[in-house]
Write a structure and sequence with these properties.
Blueprint: H1 2-5, E1 10-13, H2 20-28, E2 32-35, H3 49-71, H4 82-104
Parallel strand pairs: 1-2
Helix pairs in contact: 3-4
């Protein structure tokens, strides 16, 4: 259903998903796999410079999600109902945005 609505060019994943099967499946779908290499005791393979820039976008999103969970109440939601959960998360997102703006203007 997603493939019908969105043109996906890249599959971006961390080192936990490093396997030949996932790389092959991503390529079979016509995507470029940007999967961090898990060295497993051997030499670590680095990204090409352009791919490294694209991979960093994943890191930015994950840092924001981690801060929302760890610092702004996204991990332990103690309300019931979809509307209340959404409100709880949006207030956390609003606080995260205000915090980031305060850091920007320091």
């Amino acid at each position: 259903m997603t493939a019908a609505r969105v043109t996906n060019l890249y599959d971006v994943m961390d080192a936990a998903y490093c396997s030949k099967e996932l790389h092959e499946h991503s390529r079979s779908l016509g995507h470029v796999p940007l999967i961090d290499h898990n060295a497993r005791g051997g030499p670590k393979e680095e990204f090409e410079p352009t791919d490294a820039v694209r991979y960093k976008e994943r890191s930015v999103a994950e840092r924001s999600n981690a801060r929302l969970k760890d610092e702004f109440g996204g991990r332990n939601i103690r309300v019931r109902g979809a509307d209340n959960v959404m409100s709880h998360l949006m207030f956390g997102l609003l606080a995260l945005t205000a915090d980031q703006l305060m850091r920007l203007f320091r």
